[in-house]
Amino acid sequence: MHEFRIEKDRCAVRLSLVSGETITGAMFVQHVGEGDPRRESARDVLNSSDRFFPVETAEGETLLVAKDCVVDVLAELPNDDDELRRASARSALLEVVLSGGIVRSGIVLLEMPAGQPRLLDYLNRLSDRFLVLYAAEGTRLVNRALIERVLPRD
Fold first, then answer.
1. CATH assignment of 79-152?
2. Inter-residue contact 33 to 110 (CB < 8 Å)
3. d(CA 14, CA 152)
4. Which pLDDT score, from 0 to 100, does residue 55 have?
5. Whole-angstrom distance between the N-terminal and C-terminal Cα of the chain?
6. Do the Cβ atoms of 56 and 29 come closer than 8 Å?
7. What is the pLDDT of residues 99-137, one digit of tens each?
8. Residues of each domain in the chain carrying CATH 2.30.30.100
9. How far apart are CA 128 and CA 110, in angstroms?
């Protein structure tokens, strides 16, 4: 291994961009620590403070994508992360309307203190750049900055 190279794995993703373009490929994720089998998830990469992230397209081209221009990402999250979150949080079914009229439906997990279980409180206090939405087609990471409105459906 080259001394400046960081070992990375690939995580299959489908990105929707503000331009209307869709990119199918793989996001690069790394192991949490040496000897630790856990790895970052697409959620970790998208919610980091970095403004850009690399994506390898299905054609083998590597793009550096600006997070601000990503509407949402359909990605697989680690099962242990999902199970723990689902067991410890109340869920809410909702419809999210994004800039440009894009509509996404699914479930969010309201990871809030017991005294503040409202969807409004959750949305106002969430610090992550991307909201996790469990949808019929898979897990979507939705860019909160592009959300126009949210309609509760339960």
1. 2.30.30.100
2. no
3. 25
4. 96
5. 52
6. no
7. 989 999 999 998 766 666 688 988 998 999 999 999 999
8. 79-152
9. 13
